[in-house]
Specification:
The complex is a heterodimer of chains A (394) and B (207).
Chain A lengths: L17 H20 L3 E2 L5 E3 H7 L8 E4 L5 E4 L4 H12 L6 E10 L11 E10 L4 H17 L5 E7 H12 L2 H12 L3 H10 L4 H10 L3 E2 L2 H9 L4 H18 L6 E4 L12 E7 L7 E5 L13 E7 H8 L8 E6 L4 H13 L3 E6 L6 H7 L2 E5 L7 E2 L1
Parallel strand pairs in A: 1-5, 7-9, 13-14, 13-15
Antiparallel strand pairs in A: 2-4, 3-4, 5-6, 6-12, 7-10, 8-9, 10-11, 11-12, 15-16
Chain B lengths: L4 E6 L2 H12 L15 E4 L4 E6 L4 H6 L5 E5 H7 L4 E5 L5 E7 L11 E4 L2 H10 L5 E4 L6 H4 L5 E6 L3 H5 L3 E9 L1 E5 L1 H6 L1 H14 L1
Parallel strand pairs in B: 1-3, 1-4, 7-8, 7-9
Antiparallel strand pairs in B: 2-3, 4-11, 5-11, 6-9, 6-10
Classes of the chains: A alpha+beta (394), B alpha/beta (207).
Chain lengths: 394, 207
């Protein structure tokens, strides 16, 4: 192995310097404030979890988990998302008497290190989970909350695409006959390989009507009219139920006044098995990757011994900041430069200004080597130097 | 810029056929397009920006979203496994990936060596065959490797087979056929869906 330089960090790890930290703080607190005002309660969970429980339950693929061993030889993971830990806490402690639970978090999550840039191994997610509510109202609430949070964070250009894995599954099983064949075809959607999807459909021994239905499925993207088109593709049964949910969801989101932000896209398959119903991805201008995603995951709580539904979303703070672009002006900071004889006066002035909400640095002038550089660093400088009553400001 | 689409085009072999296809689809591309040395070409009438990239890099630009769309060979998509939508088989620049080597030779029993520009494809292919091989990555003139004893076999793109023949090599197996594909960034596919759908429709009509 080559020798490490003093300043090197492990692959995929980043420092957050003051300017970015401040911008991150602002965005985080505006989202947190919004989520709290919707009655969501924030919680924290450990950074390390067991691979066997959280690692297996999480939606993140095994090869993307950041694994290590504890002293007893158990495999641990650095938490890859917050949904599984929250499901664990909810199932074991907080979810009682079937009262729907609204929990939220802002936390760093971890993914296996990758060579290429733009793929940090550690990044912050902010999100919310609604546990124990199986209604479409809850799905709609999570979408509306995600939209409202992003608006509060100052994001103007963004869009959510909403799909329903229940519909995909029903349609495919209806036409192909069994789960296994449906899964095979779903894999092409998951891999975003539409060329392969079409070739696969054409290679199957299907009636021309059925293969036409499968090919037409790829065009189910757009506004609420998509639901009408989709219902032409399914026979009665569960696929219809999924579409009824989508129709209801549109109404819910319209009532929230947020329908201008969403589009339907029934081809979205964010994961091969994790989501169970309505799901969505969040896209913003200027960033080539989704900045957030979410959906209904009714099977997760079962893994922790509670049988109830849940729905939630997570926003990636790093990508949100990237799409916000300009970090904005940092808070102004005043520097009081003092000499020993006026130390007390300086302390009092600082205390007074801090009370008024100003950010104030106290700096003994004798420790400053380069006065010009020091003055340039701050938005305002007050000199309390030498004998009293000679205050100078510049 | 709103409404503008950025398209990553592969320089070299595929470029002419791709440009030709776009023209047939009714897009008005300037004549200097074909022999310009510029890396970025704006076609304002069509609200297109073309970026000219190495074929291997097209999928990278598209995955990161600096290009909305791209034209990339299936070989690149298989090798790079980028998170992009593969929307259309453009059916141009047809060729195939093959295993080749000196005639009448057997692969070394212990640790056969395979030279290739496509280490991931080659590794996956031989793993599927149950063969344990050692991959040697080269960046060009792959045919040289078996001739001077660097490798037992090569995995490379074959279009006419002339290069292999001229160097006294023969094909042993075909791995997969390759054509160029239209690929799209997942965010662009959703945010610029109308323009992209229109482009796909026009291309689809002339394929």
């Amino acid at each position: 192995m080559s020798r490490l330089f003093m300043f090197e960090k492990p692959l995929g790890m980043r420092d957050t310097l003051p300017e970015l930290h401040e911008a991150k703080d602002k965005v985080r607190s505006s989202i947190e404030k919004e989520m709290k005002s919707w009655g969501f309660q924030f919680i924290e969970t450990p950074t390390l979890e067991y691979y066997e429980t959280i690692g297996n339950a999480s939606a993140i693929l095994d090869q993307q988990l950041f694994k290590l061993l504890d002293q007893q030889g158990h495999t641990l993971v650095l938490r890859p998302d917050m949904t599984a830990p929250i499901a664990r806490v909810a199932a074991s402690k907080l979810f009682k008497d079937q009262v729907p639970l609204r929990l939220a978090y802002s936390a760093n999550v971890f993914r296996a290190q990758q060579r290429e840039g733009g793929r940090p191994a550690e990044f912050e997610q902010i999100g919310g989970e609604c546990i124990g509510d199986n209604s479409v109202s809850a799905d709609g609430e999570m979408i509306a909350l995600a939209i409202s949070s992003l608006k509060k964070a100052g994001l103007e250009q963004f869009q959510l695409s909403v799909g329903h894995v229940g519909f995909v599954n029903e349609l495919f099983v209806q036409i192909l006959g069994n789960e296994e064949r449906a899964r095979e075809l779903t894999k092409f959607l998951y891999e975003k390989n539409y060329v392969g999807y079409r070739e696969h459909v054409k290679s199957l021994p299907l009636s021309s009507i059925d293969s036409q239905r499968l090919l037409a499925f790829l065009d189910l993207r757009g506004g609420p009219e998509v639901i009408g088109k989709a219902s032409e593709l399914v026979e009665n049964g569960k696929g219809r139920a999924a579409l009824d949910e989508m129709k209801l969801l549109w109404d819910v989101i319209e009532d929230f006044g947020a329908s201008d932000r969403i589009k339907f896209d029934l081809t979205i398959v964010s994961h091969m098995s994790y989501y169970t119903g309505i799901l969505f991805e969040v896209y913003a201008g200027m960033v080539g990757f989704p900045i957030g995603n979410g959906g209904r995951y009714d099977k997760l709580l079962e893994k922790f011994g509670k049988s109830t539904g849940a729905t939630g979303f997570a926003i990636r703070l790093d990508r949100l900041l990237e799409s916000l672009g300009d970090l904005g002006e940092p808070e102004p900071v005043t520097c009081i430069l003092f000499s020993p004889e006026r130390r007390k006066e300086a302390y009092q002035l600082a205390a007074q200004r801090r009370k008024d909400g100003e950010h104030v640095v106290l700096q003994d002038i004798s420790a400053v080597r380069n006065l010009d550089a020091c003055s340039d660093t701050f938005s305002d400088v007050v000199f309390l130097v030498g004998k009293a009553d000679k205050e100078g400001t510049r | 810029m709103s409404g503008q689409l950025t398209i990553a085009m592969p320089k070299g072999r595929i470029f002419n056929e791709a440009a030709d296809l776009l023209r047939r689809a009714g897009f008005d591309l300037p004549p200097e397009f074909d022999d310009s040395r510029k890396l970025i070409i704006d076609v304002e009438e069509e609200k297109f920006r073309f970026i000219l990239a190495k074929p291997m890099d097209v999928a990278t630009y598209v995955e990161h979203g600096v290009a909305d769309l791209g034209i990339a060979g299936k070989d690149v998509l298989l090798e790079e496994e980028r998170d992009v939508y593969e929307l259309l088989d453009l059916k141009i620049s047809g060729c195939y990936l093959a295993v080749a080597g000196l005639p009448d030779t057997k692969m070394n029993d212990v640790a056969p060596k395979i030279a290739t520009k496509y280490p991931n494809i080659a590794a996956a292919y031989f793993r599927e065959q149950g063969e344990q091989v050692e991959i040697i990555k080269l960046n060009g003139s792959i045919e040289l490797a078996p001739l001077i004893g660097l490798a037992d076999r090569i995995v490379d793109i074959v279009s006419t087979g002339r290069t292999l023949k001229e160097n006294g090599l023969v094909e042993y197996e075909t791995i997969t056929t390759v054509t160029s594909r239209l690929i799209v960034n997942p965010v662009s596919y959703r945010i610029k869906d109308e323009r992209i759908s229109e482009l796909i429709k026009r291309l689809n009509d002339v394929i």
